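Bench log, entry 3. Co-assembly request; chain sequences pasted below exactly as received.
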Amino acid sequence: MKLHVVFSLAGAEYALPFDAVLQMESYTGATLVPGSAAYVDGIVTVRGLVVPVLDLRTRFGLPRTELNLDTRLIVTESDGRVVALRVDSAREVLKLDVEKHQPAPSIVSERSSGFVQAVHPLGNRLLLLLDLPKLLGENSHDLKLRALLEDNGSNTRPQLPS
Amino acid sequence: MTGAADLKEFIAAYLVEAEEHLTVANTQLLAIEDAQRSGETNPRAVRETFRSIHTIKGLSAMVGIEPVVAIAHRMENFLRDSDRSGGALPQPAIEALLRGVRAIEQRIAALSRGDAAAAPSDELLVALDSLGLAAPIRPLEAVAIDLDPALLAKLAPFEVDQLRRGINAGQRALRAEFSPSPELAAQGLTINSVRTRIATVSEIVRVLPRALPVSPEAPGGLCFVLILLTRSSDEVLAETAGLNRASFQSIARDLPVPAPEAELVPLLEAALDGAEDGKLDTHSRRGVVRVDVSRLDDAMEGLSALIVTRFRLARSIAVLTERGVNTRELSEIMNDNARQLRDLRAAIVRVRMVPVSELLERIPLLVRGLGRSTGRTVRLELEAGNAELDKAVSERLFPVIVHLVRNAVDHAMETPDERLRRNKPEEGLLRIGCSARSNTRLEITVSDDGRGIDRAAVARKAGRPTPDDDAGLLELLCIPGLSTREIVTTTSGRGMGMEIVKRTIVDELGGELEVHSQLGQGTTFTLRVPLTISIVDAFSFECGEQRFVVPVTMVDEIIEVDPNALVQVPANDDGSPGVEIVSRRGVAVPMIQLAQVFRLKTGPKRGSKAIVVRRAGTPVAFAVDRMLGQQEVVIRPINDALVRAPGVSGATDLGDGRPTLVLDLVALSASLGSAPALPARTR
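Structure output for the full assembly:
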């Protein structure tokens, strides 16, 4: 059994492993970054880190909604990257039996650009499990230059405290 | 190691101590006022105020802050008179003294900001002068006080000082002895009556009780030694006090007046010796160079240029390799070069680091002062370890630690009596620990074993529900304007100011703040901060209803834009934004509407100012809506590919808790030169 954070988006329910979630926050808007992709709302500061906000509706090709009191940011960490996901609402933390995850039917996986990794039936509900790294996409900035600049434990790369 | 640099270091300690004494003076003056309202005097508070102001004056003279000396000197004179006359202080005098304290506070605040202390207004000086008879300041001359060392040791430094000043002012310093006995008491001579009588013809510096073997002269086995300053003769004194003339002895030894120039240095050394011994070890500082941080930034910038050159070199080598040239040797050189650059970078970063122990070395002084002024006995445990911290981080961290220490002693620690009642050791324990959590973060804990924070009480004060954990408590504590002083204790000092702590640690430094408090057991604050940060002086401006900052060093000029003087250049048909031309001192400068490039909403004040930068020597102007100001900002990197954009070099916090983009307009102009406009956002 593993803890999962459950959130909803356009009527569907999604689950993320609890250990990939750093925290959840209410959302009052982000600072727009010119030139970023349409599904990026901008940046916010979380625990002193500058973190991008990914609007899951736009990422999934769904119509955007206005901010409301239910809107939540789920701050996730995957492969050392910290990204906040904007979702319609997030209210539940559930224990899910990982054994009961079912691979997403290929048509679902294909139609969702591979973002949906598995499904999890729970009573008469169906939770969709996301492939977080795939969702966030490649982190393809100039790795070489940064590696050189940031070797030896330098300052500029933010590191979340353990 | 120059005198000036040492003095500068001493000034930091001076500021901390002066603030402490100002707090005391304020509190005591208010206590005097309270007493005055109910028609009473509060001689103790007058004496405390006198001490504080006296100390401030002494410290200020030592570091050469003349405006503060001028104010404090006048206050001190008046307070001394008041002290002598039993602590009477009329309301107008209290007003004037509070004004004086405020004036000193303002100057201390200016010095903390690195500004000069302004000369006091004549009006204030006259107001203070008119309180009493302000004597001109005389240089403190060395006068030996001829007193039994055991007695001398019991005198407070300010009392010795008082004696020296009196002697310098032409008064005689005397000691008198009085041994109480039933016979004398029958004649109405007790220590209290002697004291009262003698005070009419002299200034009593101190009365010291002394145990003696029982003898006919001292039937109670006790005598009192009175240390006096007077202008009266022994006859008058003896007559007035009802004592034997022989019981008065001079304690001033005549000395030739020393050369005045020699004074500042020994005084300063004495102060430093007395401060925190060992920490200012001159040997370990030999061969130390003090460097302006901006010079290190220059070095770092130079290194960045080197790295870019290296990449160009690497590309050229790759091209050669493709053409079939043997580049093995070149590649080896390149590898060496990479390693050397890495080492160089580490070396430059290291130069900026200062030991955490240096940051904390002023804390014992602070704790001592706080303990004294609040009547707490505090044992301080400092564990600075060997960790090092960027100078810029350290400078921002220090006031936060001072805040937390002050709160711990002022508010958290119980009085010794209360502690004993609660079965705690009489002495409170304050622990400051430091440890490097990783090679990028430092963790600092400030813990006390005081009364702990009452969540319910804080919640009531904030008008919120009681939090059920420490995180919730911290949130409450950091509500701006919430002072928990009234709930936690009413002793003294200022409110918690936790919102400032949070702003500095979390918003400015990008660190973390935690609290763990257990009612009755104590409180621990944990701070985690990055070891280094990068700070620049930047202009902030508004464009398309969004705020941005740009480093000052990047800006050539800021110009007003006259829309009528703009010349529109025909645009490409690829949808990229058109360029305009503005004439600047007869040179045509291309001007780019930043709002257009960034696809921002444009406001009514569209493009009324322009920021001119130079790209490879050629000026380029960016039109913006409004300039907001100039300030130092801490730059946070934007690392994630999702939000990397040309022209955006990082983010900062202008104090609203939201990130503001830091722009690299030079890079932006370069990206515009080669590529079409940024893709339109679908909004």
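Confidence is low (pLDDT under 50) at residues 140-162 of chain A. Helices of chain A lie at 56-59, 106-111, 132-136, 143-150.
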